[in-house]
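Question (not urgent): is this output format expected?
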Amino acid sequence: MNLIKKIFFIFIFSSVSSAYAKSAPDSFADLAEQLMPSVVNISTTQIIKTTSNPNPFPFKFPPGSPFGEMFKDFENQQPKERKASALGSGFIIKESGIVITNNHVIANAEDILVRVGDKEYKAKLVGADPYMDVAVLQMETKDKFKIVKFGDSDLARVGDWAVAIGNPFGLGGTVTAGIISARNRDINLTRYDDFIQTDASINQGNSGGPLFNLKGEVIGINTAIIAPGQSGSIGIGFAIPANAASNVIDQLIEFGETKRGWLGVRIQEVTKEIADVEKLKKPEGALVASVGEKSPADKAGIKAGDIILEFDGKKIDTMRTLPKIVANTEVGKSVQLKIWRDKKSILKRLTLGRLESSEEFKEKKIKVENKIEEIKSLKITVRNINNQDISSRDLNKDTKGVVITNIENQSPLKNLLAISDIIIEVQKKPVKKTSDLINIVDNIFKKGEKTLLLTVIDKNNRRRYLGVKIN
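Got this back:
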């Protein structure tokens, strides 16, 4: 009798478990074959300004010396310009050749080439949004192309299969598969972080490529990875959700720019201590730190110290939820806000403005520095820090420095620093722009010093010092 009960229990348990399990696909081959023609490789070229070679002699030759004439070129050598290339991925959403990729793939590009299969096409920029890191390209051709469509990324569940196709390390047409590891990830990369995390292998060059579900629908745009020490994919990749991206893409195609909702407040987190003082049951909402003059919030009577708990019927669980919801709300819409003020709930109604038309936006409008400078002595390339870096990384607005854009394998900084690290001092002398770095490093080499002391801000926004042997 006990044996019969045991067998019955096992049967029931197995039946219940199988109801929740979905069998893994035997192969991704059919899906990959269907989708490959719509995934493209993107290459860009941009102008890089190289610095002069430092004078190998740390002294001046006396007047009339033949050696002075011989080596004067080292002193007079002018910066030169050369073209550098970068690689990324993208996907086609319209038969006419509309391609979607990341903004950072094509930022500052002089020329953009899109490879579809064995054919290459020139492309022009239709519109880009640095805030969400999305760009729309148009291939300059009358050819017709096979397209892919966006799926509903809100239906993607943790544990679902995901397939990435892209151009990692220039190896075009690479297919990787994994699962959705997490949703709604905030990694402080953009103002509107809401990433899908996946363990499908993503590497450099995959940026801008699609993340598919098993129906062949695009549920995300592959954008970032966590790669300690530039070690490549470790199974932690991030994709912009299709639902958020498609709204921006539609605006870029129609207007060439975005039209985001604007409230006109600076906000901060509601901590446990603030919640206790304000008599909130738990930390939630967005605390208004200040209100922009003549902004929609100002006109509606919202004040500094208010805590926004709901916007247009949507709950604001944390501070970072509010900008995403406001941005995705139609400009000019009348919305109701639920606010906590003086330990009680009140309602306010306002007409939403447009972020891009606001004085706040114009003052902080992103001015991307086009020049990338090569520091030959260190075998790195750098550019000036810009407003986008400060905004996306949540840095102090007064931060000055240069951002590392490339580190060659032979560089003394290889494996010590990473791309996107910010150099703010050398030998404790401030580096406010690329020319500062060039001058300081040149002088160090001229003096024959053997060590650099760098002060950097790493990708986690931590300030640290680093001693580097250079001779």
